[in-house]
Design a protein that fits this description.
Elements lengths: L1 H30 L7 H18 L25 E10 L2 E8 L5 E4 L6 H17 L5 E7 L12 H4 L10 H15 L5 H4 L6 E8 L6 H13 L5 E6 L18 E6 L4 E3 L20 E3 L5 H19 L20 E9 L2 E8 L5 E4 L6 H15 L5 E7 L22 E6 L3 H25 L4 H7 L4 E7 L10 H16 L5 E7 L12 H5 L4 E4 L21 E5 L15 E5 L7 H13 L9 E4 L10 H7 L7 E7 L6 E5 L8 E4 L4 H16 L6 E6 L2 H15 L3 E5 L4 H4 L6 E6 L11 H6 L5 E7 L2 H8 L4 H4 L2 E4 L4 H8 L12 E5 L4 E7 L8
The structure holds adenosine-5'-triphosphate.
The site of adenosine-5'-triphosphate has 15 residues, from helix 9.
Protein name: FtsK domain-containing protein
Keywords: ATP-binding, Nucleotide-binding
GO molecular function: ATP binding; DNA binding
């Protein structure tokens, strides 16, 4: 045994000796430079190589950077194939640029990492050259710098905002994330066509230093990327490769398809590029000349290059409205089988969504400010340009404060409108929403009758026989419509359900948008029956709840992007390509007002002759008697039953809210509520009645019992006196007025201040029979019921308008449960004889808004 041990140590000693001899021989061989056979030949060769380099690596790619002018233009027609790494110096006075192939070919490694300042300088120079000479935005860089905590790439910080080069990663998890991204880049699913498209991009992974103790598995991933990257547009620059062979696992061969740079002092040696050689003899390996690596470029060059690249990339990657609008002629598409429009881009590909039998309705989610309105406006203009108004009709409802759809209706600034829009609601009421749904429901019924007559069951079949537009109804913040528990909510839910289920068969489609799409209480037990009908889900930032709970595709979406899913929000394995789901970018249509206005004007100018401006409901807008079509008709002496016109009904055509007068007992009108707007409504009622009678044929007796009514009463009397017999009564004269036997209107402001017993009960019953009606404004409900007969008041006065009177008191007075909440610019009109209660926008006097 001792013998064996002695033999082993002897063998080891011999081995060490042999290794030392080989190393020494190698060292002296390297130092040994055979005397040049002919110095002139060497100089000529260097000269030729300099000229060749000038052609191969022009401008930023090959110029000495310390002397480079800032003004040298950036970019180039295509990705650079070669780049300079330093100056080769075969003789003291013969030099030429050392050039290596990289992008489009393979990779580059340096045996030392960037802790060696020469390597750091080289990396920065290389990156600067490549970025400066690539077409803007075509080269994406991912950087790893563990030893330098990212500082090696510090001068490129300005590229981070542009998304061209995120901040370098500095640890193992960062490295893994970058490797995963690179692996995705090379995965075969990346379609070959996309790589060669206009927006072709290349990913450059620059590793300045690997994290300490990088595992063998990660090193193997780097090697695999090197093997497969170039065909997919992925290239590596790795400093510190091969890594120290600490264990068997971390012992790595040179990277495949790579040019290797080996540092000596003070120069470096450049190995042969992949699948090529520098020398022409078989034995020669690498570039047969020492190379002095490029040094750190001056700071001002980084600034200039990075800033310009960031600016260019931002401009290039921004989509504009033109990217989602069709090119060429307006209205060239047919809607018989469905309608489709581009909603945005996934990379270079335009993504189109449809309204048809398979994808009848869309649901859109996104927090406030996530770009819902922007997305919808793109869709509406996209559709509006593709389909003629005869092919497509739009109903647009917005329940939030804001002006999402206001641009589609004529305004003082711009008289144009979107000819497809039939009705537009801005800051809509739930009443208006329900009115729109009712109209759509009625349209569905009309269409079903048309189907029966034509003997067809499909929209496209009917279209072969007659023209008929598809209808799209967009409801922004639709949850408002179905919030609460009253009769209105029940009706809204059932109309929504009916449209969602049956609309597809009749060419009627819904787009529901919301901040809290699924969190709507009233819909809990209808979720499947309603939301199940919405296969298209669009999740904007913060709108992930329109997707399935397990689908987190929308997490962390930036503004201007969305996940569009055509399978009801269904997810799929993480990382897998999902045919039914895309992440898109979409433009901000309002970033270019002029274009937007131009498109609307173009559509408006092309409108058919019969096109009418859409009916508009602006929830906040005051309504005036002077602008009311029924009032104007009365002024023009169109024969009609005398009616008190008191406001506008919240329906699609905004019909006039009227209280017609006849001889029935109790046919009087009482306006109830302390709001001084009561005086305005009474004023409108009296003026409109006067307009219904030929001049000089009817008598008005006007009185004001409270200060709040005095001015209005006086102005009203003057106005009425211009056409009719009108007199102003003092309080004391009022009791006499109830005695008149000729047709007359008694108009009293502040009737709650009337003396007890002044208003005879039998007048209320009998007055209308002789053509005498009382029109009055009461500031309090209690005085009204006292004067008019307690709970019987509703029998004595058939017309009531409630302003700011709580719902519970109204319900009590009318003896029926009502879903009424008093709010500004709204009133409730009750006509007992017609058994009708309607929410209206009451008329106000224009003076109020002056
Ligand atoms: N594609 C986009 N790119 C960049 N900015 C956008 C984009 N779309 C919208 N924005 C901007 O985001 C802001 C909010 O957009 P928008 O009004 O469409 O959001 P919203 O979801 O409708 O918000 P809200 O519900 O609060 O009205 C706007 O200032 C708009 O300019």
């Amino acid at each position: 045994m001792p013998d064996a041990k002695a033999r082993m140590s002897h063998a080891a000693a011999l081995h060490r000796q042999a290794a030392a001899t080989v190393a020494a021989a190698a060292g002296s061989l390297e130092r040994f430079q055979p005397p040049p056979p002919d110095l002139r030949e060497q100089h000529e060769l260097a000269e030729r190589l300099r000229a060749a380099a000038a052609a191969l690596v022009p401008g930023w790619l090959g110029a000495p950077l310390d002397a480079q002018s800032e003004d040298t233009p950036l970019g180039g027609p295509r990705l650079p194939q070669f780049v300079r790494v330093g100056m080769a110096q075969p003789l003291d006075d013969a030099r030429f640029p050392a050039v290596v192939p990289l992008l489009g070919t393979g990779h580059l490694t340096v045996d030392a990492d960037a802790r060696d300042p020469r390597v750091a300088g080289l990396l920065r120079a290389l990156l600067l050259r490549l970025l400066a000479s690539s077409p803007a935005g075509s080269l994406l860089v991912r950087a790893v710098d563990a030893a330098g905590a990212g500082l090696v790439f510090g001068p490129f910080a300005a590229l981070a905002d542009a998304g061209l080069m995120p901040p370098p990663v500095t640890d193992r998890s960062g490295l893994r994330a970058v490797l995963a991204e690179a692996e995705q880049w090379v995965r075969p699913a990346r379609p070959a066509t996309a790589r060669h498209s206009r927006r072709d991009r290349t990913l450059l992974l620059a590793i300045a230093s690997l994290p300490e103790l990088t595992e063998g598995a990660d090193l193997a991933r780097i090697a695999a990327l090197a093997q497969h990257g170039p065909e997919a547009g992925l290239h590596l620059i790795v400093a510190g490769w091969p890594p120290p062979p600490l264990t068997e696992d971390t012992t790595q061969p040179p990277l495949p398809r790579t040019t290797m740079i080996t540092l000596r002092n003070p120069y470096a040696i450049i190995g042969d590029p992949p699948a090529a050689r520098y020398g022409n003899s078989v034995e020669s390996k690498g570039l047969n000349a020492p190379v002095f690596l490029d040094e750190d470029p001056p700071a001002h060059l980084f600034e200039r290059v990075c800033q310009e690249l960031a600016d260019k990339s931002a401009t290039q990657s921004r989509l504009t409205l033109a990217d989602v609008l069709p090119e060429g002629e307006l209205w060239s598409e047919d809607s018989a089988e469905g309608v489709a429009t581009t909603v945005g881009h996934d990379g270079d590909t335009a993504v189109t969504l449809q309204f048809n039998d398979l994808t009848p309705h869309w649901m859109i989610g996104g927090r406030s400010g996530a770009g819902k309105t922007a997305f919808l406006i793109n869709v509406l203009y996209g559709l509006g340009c593709r389909y003629a108004p005869g092919e497509l009709t739009l109903y647009l409802l917005d329940f939030k404060e804001g002006v999402s759809f206001a641009e589609f209706v004529p305004s003082a600034r711009d008289k144009t409108w979107l000819p497809h829009a039939r009705a537009v609601g801005v800051e809509s009421d739930r009443e208006y929403g329900v009115a729109v749904l009712r109209e759509l429901d009625a349209e569905m019924t009309r269409r079903s009758v048309a189907y029966k007559r034509a003997g067809v069951t499909r929209f496209s079949d009917l279209r072969q026989q007659r023209a008929m537009p598809r209808i799209i109804c967009v409801i922004d913040e639709f949850q408002v419509l179905v919030t609460g528990s009253g009769a209105l909510t029940t009706e809204a839910v059932s109309l929504l359900e009916s449209l969602a289920r049956k609309g597809r068969s009749y060419g009627i489609h819904l787009v529901l948008a919301s901040q809290t799409a699924l969190g709507v209480e009233a819909l809990y037990d209808k979720r499947d029956s309603i939301f199940g009908q919405f296969p298209v889900r669009v999740a904007l930032p913060g709108g992930g709840d329109v997707l399935e709970p397990t689908n987190d595709a929308a997490a962390g979406l930036p503004l201007g992007s969305a996940v569009v899913n055509t399978a009801g929000g269904l997810g799929g394995p993480r990382g897998a390509t999902r045919g039914h789901e895309r992440t898109i970018r979409f433009p901000d249509p309002h970033s270019d007002r002029a274009t937007l206005d131009g498109v609307r004007r173009r559509l408006w100018e092309a409108r058919p002759e019969t096109s009418k401006a859409p009916s508009v409901f602006e929830g906040y807008a005051h309504q005036y008697l002077e602008e009311d079509p029924t009032y104007r008709a009365a002024l023009a002496m169109t024969p009609a039953r005398p009616s008190a016109l008191v406001g506008r009904v919240i329906d699609v055509p905004l019909s006039t809210a009227a209280f017609p007068l006849d001889a029935s007992p109790g046919r009087h009108l009482a306006i109830l509520g302390p709001s001084t707007y009561g005086a305005d409504v009474l004023d409108a009622a009296a003026r409109s009645l006067a307009a219904h009678h030929p001049a000089g044929t009817v008598r008005f007796m006007v009185s004001s019992l409270v200060a709040d009514g005095d001015a209005t009463a006086r102005a009203l009397t003057e106005h009425l006196a211009e056409t009719q017999i009108a007199e102003h009564l003092h309080a004391a004269q009022l009791s006499g007025a109830f005695e008149v036997t000729e047709p007359a209107y008694i108009v009293v402001f502040g009737m709650d201040a009337v003396g007890r017993g002044v208003l005879p009960r039998d007048f209320l019953r009998e007055g209308p029979g002789r053509g005498v009606h009382l029109l009055s404004w009461w500031r309090g409900l209690r005085r009204f019921t006292e004067e008019v007969g307690g709970s019987a008041a509703r029998e004595e006065v058939a017309g009531m308008i409630f302003l700011n009177v709580p719902g519970s008191e109204v319900s009590l007075l009318l003896g029926q449960q009502l879903d009424w909440q008093p709010r500004p610019n709204r009133a409730l009109l009750h006509d007992r004889h017609a058994d009708r209660t309607t929410v209206i926008v009451p008329f106000v006097r224009p003076e109020r808004d002056e």
